[in-house]
Amino acid sequence: MRSLCTMSTFKSVLILGKRSHCQMTFTCLRYLHKSASASSLENPVKPVSDLFTNPVDRLQPLLQIPIIPNTDRAFRPSRKEIEEASLLFEPKNLVGECFKFLGAYPNPHIMPRWDVPEVAFIGKSNVGKSSLLAAMFAQVPDLKVRVSSKPGHTKLMNVFNVSNLFHLIDMPGYGFNMPDHFETSVEAYLKTRRSKMTFILFDGRVGMTQNDQKYFQRYSDLQIPMCMVLTKIDLAKPSALLRSIVSCLRFRDETKANSCFPQPFLVSSMNGEGLAFLQSFIAYITGNLKIESLT
What we know:
Blueprint: H1 7-13, H2 55-59, H3 79-86, E1 99-105, E2 118-123, H4 129-136, E3 157-162, E4 166-170, H5 182-192, E5 197-203, H6 210-221, E6 226-231, H7 238-254, E7 265-266, H8 275-285
Parallel strand pairs: 2-4, 2-5, 5-6, 6-7
Antiparallel strand pairs: 1-3, 3-4
């Protein structure tokens, strides 16, 4: 069992002080959320100096202990591997390439059995599941992911095809305004389809809520492959984001959720930070990317 720092230890090792924010231009715009360009001058989307990195790396200098313990066989792709994976989400006009919305399904029993790996995204209402997928497909103009500011707008399981290599599934959210058929749709899917990975999303500003803990424990008991993703990191202060990470990892260990990947992923659907890194993990677990450090 990995030992994580307690919250009191966390506070004591946090390096306090002002961080300098230099104004940089985007290295690429492929992940920039369409609503970012419409943001007000009062709250502009901050640019990211390098989109092909792991956001954990910029947070590590704020802690005197490893955020991802060295004892874990961490996912650490090279920059070249991250860039290679990101290209899977961009149209290249190749034979067999297909980015397509395949349909919305109320339960898995009427969902076709496709011969490609499936990756599911789940979390509380308004945590940013649809926005995350919309950002991933920002370079595919013909593929639209419906995004709403109203919690619980996703009522069905929306399936998106990525070049016939794998499918991404946007699940209805739990909590506020969740659909009545949630258990017969989402939970039935998790029990019967056995996707390559179920990404469970948490708000990076607050970490796990009590409701998040309830559903995390519930899905952990199913022994399905899970991975934690912290969203909206562009809105979280570094100290708050670190607390969220530590609390999520600590809860994972306390509940002995051994089917959950020990490394969390951090993403922003607005400025694109962390998306290419997450895409490289998706490419890896679906068998579409070789990671030299893991061979």
